Amino acid sequence: MYYFLAMLALTDLGLCLSTLPTVMGIFWFDAREIGIPACFTQLFFIHTLSLVESSVLLSLSIDRYVAICHPLRYSTVLTPARIIRMGLSSVFRSALLILPLPFLLMRFQYCHSHVLAHAYCLHLEIMKLACSSIIVNHIYGLFVVACTVGVDSLLIFLSYALILRTVLSIASHHERLRALNTCVSHICAVLLFYIPMIGLSLVHRFGEHLPRTVHLLMSYVYLLVPPLMNPIVYSIKTKQIRQHIVNKFEFIKSLRGFQQD
């Protein structure tokens, strides 16, 4: 599980770093312009890392399924080599599916307003600035979402259906609660990721009449809330992580006390 948590942490960190240059540029230096190559590069990394996070959440659901439904085979099924292959396949799948998006956007002429509603570049927003038909981008965007987020969410739901069936077959009420308690952190992470993503997609596709503040709020919630909340959720619910954090604070406190003496 800790391998997958490390992947989730790196993905969240990458998402923050992808938006950091433009967000900090606006707030610190009032730099409100971005070149097309830089914009498309940022777009590629934001969407790629978002899909990678979806894949990592699926991997975590597989981890929970094996741990609860086949505990005796856990160490033989989820070996370090297999986990690394799962992580690399998630990265390659996401990158290959997102790679055509910048090239699809490059073929457009942009005659509408060049003002973006967010502090970073997103495919749904940029393609609406094009003068010509964007039907190909719409279709390919829906295809990418269906092949990644759609499949991942379906498999996550299926894994939890199997987990629930196994848990309900346990005779002891205490053991049932204990098994379900190990899934709480992952369920929270899934909700923190998918709800803002669905909300932002709906706002972009059907919320053109909504105030600009709503678009800004949803965009920041989508990219900043999961990286903020995931470490908190897993730190609270995972005893080992929580204990390491407590030990770090106690060590720092002892160093300060020693310096004062």
From TrEMBL:
Ranges where the G-protein coupled receptors family 1 profile domain occurs: 1-234
Example of a GO MF term: G protein-coupled receptor activity
Keyword Chaperone: no
GO biological process, one term: cellular response to lipid
One Gene Ontology term, aspect cellular component: plasma membrane
Signal peptide annotation: 1-16
Keyword check for RNA-binding: no
Function summary: Putative odorant or sperm cell receptor.
Protein name, per record: Olfactory receptor
Organism: Muntiacus muntjak
Lineage of origin: Eukaryota, Metazoa, Chordata, Craniata, Vertebrata
